[in-house]
Q: What sequence folds into this?
């Protein structure tokens, strides 16, 4: 953070570390901090990834739904282990249909 505190990916990674190490309060604070970023895409990535890491599927889906609307979702969402709980949810099929992901 000392080297690049304004870099969205640094903030995202910090939030993920907090979430994976049981520091949910700090992870949630990181999401709040990311909400000040200018880029909506960066804000949504923070919400999606960190909420998924915290097991907050409903909050993650809010971000993913908006990402579908602005055509900016993680390219590896179909295989990334972090999103396995999202892929099990009925809403994931709706997301896939909305963005044109097909079974291949």
A:
């Amino acid at each position: 953070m000392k080297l690049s505190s304004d870099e969205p990916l640094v903030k995202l990674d910090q939030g993920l570390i907090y979430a994976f190490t049981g520091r949910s309060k700090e992870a949630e604070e990181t999401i709040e901090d990311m909400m000040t970023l200018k880029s909506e895409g960066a804000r949504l990535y923070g919400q999606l990834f960190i909420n998924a890491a915290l097991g907050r599927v409903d909050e993650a889906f809010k971000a993913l739904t908006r990402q579908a609307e602005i055509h900016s979702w993680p390219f590896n969402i179909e295989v990334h282990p972090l999103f396995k709980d999202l892929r099990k949810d009925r809403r994931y099929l709706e997301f896939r249909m909305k963005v044109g992901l097909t079974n291949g």
Summary: The radius of gyration is 14 Å.
